[in-house]
Design goal:
The protein has about 375 residues and is mainly β. It has two domains: about 120 residues, Immunoglobulin-like; about 220 residues, Glucose Permease (Domain IIA), CATH 2.70.70. Helix content is about 5%, strand content about 40%. The strands form five sheets. Strands 11, 12, 15, 17, 18, 19, 20, 22, 23, 24, 25 and 26 form a twelve-stranded mixed β-sheet that branches. A hairpin with a 2-residue loop joins strand 2 and strand 3. The longest helix is centred in the N-terminal third of the chain and has 8 residues. It is globular, with a radius of gyration of 25 Å.
Length: about 375
């Protein structure tokens, strides 16, 4: 009788084969579950004479183990030709973990990492469709095995570039931005109405210099000593003013400027609608300098405000970006180019920005986004 009872109960204690393997530290049950997605489909923008893509790959670890990213390769979906390979130091520099300060290539269980990707086309153009190969290891189980998954296929947006006129007169102006800055506009993700977006994906901050590379004459703590302070801000195209903000006060010195929270970053601003789902944002404007109001039509080249020092800013400058909705922090940043400008110089070491001369140049440029941290002059 007892033997019959034992036989009847035995199946209740037999684990399925894959669970038995999962208990064996040498053999993982299944390849670790890593999801890869590109949420915002990219559109090429020309800079430095070459088309470049700026986009993000979101990687979510759905497995119970930490996963160590080893490399990411973008490929032509048609023939798997490699477009760019990101690994080692480059991989670490391009990764961000929301909510964490220090970058790491390891994604804990249940966490998300964002890989910020930028690369130019080796040929004159990108393929119509791009896929991604992501390689990683399980850091707690079977660490010798490198898994590779392919996915996150994207079909590029091929509509004509957004072409802007000059937002400022003359120069020289430094086009301040860098894709590699951990705290730069390119990497600041805002969540509004339950959706994560990057408004400043292509944002440029314009700071005026003198011929010696300095941005202020005399005491640079006083904002009125900055060369760009009070410069006229120009409409970059014919359009309709969509919204403005005019209630920000302005500090007279950098040293007494409040530490504004991210949702107050814009300071005084203008949103100019220049096409359907296309809005140009001008931020950090001087108080009482905005001479337009919502609903007003403007012409390309009209003076609409003055460069100031309001909102989240470390010095007087113009912040300019283009987005797909009238929401400074709740829209996706779109690529754009300027109709024409002159490349006036390059800054060999941005750590010395404002204290060392730039290397002078004189090269006319048409329909491009200025190269990161280049010195340019508008007509």
């Amino acid at each position: 009788m007892i033997s019959h009872i034992k036989k009847a109960l035995l199946p209740l204690f037999i684990l399925p084969a894959f669970l038995c393997q999962a208990q064996d530290n040498r053999i993982p049950a299944l390849p670790p579950a890593l999801e890869i997605q590109v949420h915002h489909v990219p559109k090429p923008v020309v800079t430095g004479g070459h088309p470049v893509l700026f986009y993000e790959i979101h990687l979510t670890n759905f497995s119970p183990w930490p996963l160590l990213l080893t490399k990411v390769e973008a490929q032509d979906a048609k023939n798997t030709t490699a477009l760019t390979l990101i690994k080692d130091t480059s991989l670490l520099q391009r990764l961000a973990a929301p909510g964490q300060k220090s970058p790491t290539a390891t994604i804990p269980p249940g966490n998300v990492a964002v890989l910020f990707v930028e690369y130019s086309a080796a040929a004159a153009q990108f393929p119509a469709e791009i896929i991604h190969q992501v390689s990683f290891k399980n850091t707690l189980r079977d660490t010798a095995t490198e898994y590779t998954i392919t996915g996150a296929a994207i079909q590029l947006v091929t509509s004509p570039a957004i072409v802007l006129g000059a937002p400022l007169k003359g120069g020289p102006w430094t086009a301040v931005y860098s894709p590699v800055w951990a705290q730069g506009h390119r990497r600041v993700i805002f969540v509004k109405d339950g959706v994560a977006r990057i408004p400043g994906r292509f944002a440029v901050d314009f700071v005026k210099l003198d011929s010696t590379g300095k941005f202020a004459g005399g005491d640079d703590d006083r904002i009125t000593n900055w060369y760009g302070y009070g410069a006229g801000i120009l409409a970059v195209a014919d359009g309709v003013v969509s919204s403005t903000r005019t209630d920000f006060p302005e500090s007279t010195a950098l040293s007494n400027h409040p530490d504004y929270a991210a949702h107050l970053a814009t300071g005084n601003y203008i949103s100019l609608k220049i096409a359907e789902n296309t809005y140009v944002f001008y931020e950090h404007l001087q108080p009482e300098s905005i001479v337009v109001k919502a609903g007003q039509r403007v012409k390309k080249g009209d003076v609409i405000a003055r460069l100031g020092f309001t909102g989240q800013s470390t010095g007087p400058h113009l912040h300019l970006h283009v987005a797909n909705a009238d929401a400074p922090l709740g829209a996706e940043g779109l690529p754009f180019v300027f109709e024409k400008f002159t490349l006036t110089g390059t800054i060999p070491d941005f750590n010395k920005f404002g204290s060392a001369p730039y290397i002078p140049q004189s090269q006319p440029v048409r329909r491009e986004l200025p190269v990161s941290n280049s010195v340019i002059t508008f007509p």
